[in-house]
C-alpha cells in the first residue's frame, strides 16, 4: 500500500506532520479528517529499493552527529541554505556510516520533506528531542539558534555520561584484578599444598579445610559453575526485558541507599535539560513533557512523569503534581515552582540541570574515593585469609605428623 507524507493542523492550530498508508491521496485525507485534523498536504513518498542495505546506527555515529549538528547551526547562521549546509557537513564527515545517513537526510529534504520529519526517518540517528527542537526552530524561523541549543544540550549530556563511565573504569579494573588474583591463589597456589596435607586432612584447621574445598570445587566444577552463572545471568536479563520486571527492578534501584539518590539525580538532570531546551525553543509544554519522558531510562520515574503529562493536558500545573508524586527531590521541585511563578521555566530547568550535573560529578567522585580502597581492602583480606589458612596448616604440620 502506498505511503503518504502529510502535514495537517489540529483544532488548536498546531502543525503536525508524519506518514500514513492509504490506497489513494483522497483516502489519506479522509483518514486525517477522521482523526480530527485539517489536512494541508498529502504527498506520496518514493518507494526505496528493498535491496538497499540499511546503515546500522551505532553509538559512534550518535556521538559524531553532535558535532555535525553544531556545524550545521553555524553554517545556517552564516546564511547558507539548509541543503547547502548539509552538503558541507557531509563533506566534513569522516565516518562512512554517518556520511550515508546525512546524505539520505539531505535527499529527503531536497524532495520537499520538512527537516523534523526527515530527521524522524533517519533510522534512529536523531532523538525525539532533536526532532522536536528542529520542528520548533523551523516554525519560529530560528532554526540555527535551535540547532545550536540542541548541540549544546547533547554535548553536556554526552560529557556527563563520559564522566560517569570514565570514573567507573578504575574500580572495574580493580575488581577484575582482584578476582584474577583470588582465582590464581585457589587454582594454582593452593593445589601445591594438597598432597602435603592429604594424610591429615581431618585434623587441618577449619579455615584450611574450607580453602582446600573451595580450590577443589573450582577445579572440578569450575566450568559447570561458570555455565550456571551464565545461564542465570541470561535468565535474569530476559526477565528484566518484561515490562513488569523492569518496572520492579527500576523501583528497587531507587530505594538503594546512595545509589538510588545518584540514579534519581542523573535522571532528573537529563529530564530537566531536555525539557528546558524544548520549552526555550517554543515547544508546547505538554508536548515537551511527553518528549522529555522518553529521555528517562528509569521506567518507574518515566511512568510517573507520563501520568503527570496526561494531567497537564487537562490544565494542571507541573510542580505540584511532581511534588505529590515524589518523583524528584525537593530541591528540583523548588526550581520548577520558581520557574512557573516567574514564567522562566526553561531557564530554571537548565539551571537545575547544571546544579544536578555538578552534584552527580561530586557524588561519583566521592563514591569512587570510597569504593577504590574498599575493593583493595577486601581483596587484601581474602588473599591474607588464603595465605594464613595455608601457613597455619604448615606451621602445625609437626603436630599433624605426630598425631595417632
List keywords for this structure.
Receptor-associated Protein; 3 strands; about 400 residues; about 5% strand; mainly alpha; about 75% helix; single chain; 3 domains
Give a topology summary.
Layout: E1 3-9, E2 15-21, H1 25-34, E3 38-44, H2 59-77, H3 82-92, H4 96-110, H5 115-120, H6 128-140, H7 143-189, H8 194-197, H9 206-240, H10 243-255, H11 259-280, H12 285-294, H13 299-312, H14 319-325, H15 330-342, H16 345-395, H17 397-402
Antiparallel strand pairs: 1-2, 1-3
Question: Can you describe what's shown?
Answer:
This protein has 404 residues and is mainly alpha-helical. The chain has helices at residues 25-34, 59-77, 82-92, 96-110, 115-120, 128-140, 143-189, 194-197, 206-240, 243-255, 259-280, 285-294, 299-312, 319-325, 330-342, 345-395, 397-402, and strands at 3-9, 15-21, 38-44. Helix content is 73%, strand content 5%. A three-stranded antiparallel beta sheet has the order 2-1-3, with helices on one face. The longest helix is centred in the last third of the chain and has 51 residues, at 345-395. The model is unreliable at 47-55 (pLDDT under 50).
